[in-house]
Write the structure tokens for this entry.
Amino acid sequence: MKNQAQSCPISTDRVNSKLTKIYSIFTFSIISIFLFTPFKEVIFISVLDFMIRIFLGVKYSPICTIIKFGLKTGNVPVHLVNAGPKKFAAKVGLLFTVIISIGVILNITTLSLIAGGIAFIAIGAEVFFDYCLACNIYSYLPDSWKKYL
């Protein structure tokens, strides 16, 4: 079994695991608010930030900017890990938040709740147990696919 910290043959990019961990906490909070309160539209915040982060880059993400400022201000040491699995996890996060949002917009409650429940469990595993499900799935994907993800 491949370790997510191992070097990816497609990318040599690295990302601060502290940033991704706090971003996971943020996303878990948004999903929790969506699932357990009447404020269903809160999911749009997550969709928008995921889209900015994935399509424009981390430096344009308002949430990542706030997190980076906090890490720098708190003088938290940087811990770099392979970016490939984390980028894949972000794309999976975007997919799930888009599915949840479509359910909200079209008033398909079951779709939103199922996708939200899956995201809640997967992101909760990352937040509470340091187990990134999408990162582990990424390690099993053929290397030829990884350059497209």
In short: Helices lie at 17-36, 43-56, 62-73, 83-105, 109-129, 133-140, 143-146. The two ends are 20 Å apart (CA to CA). Residues 83-105 form the longest helix (23 residues).
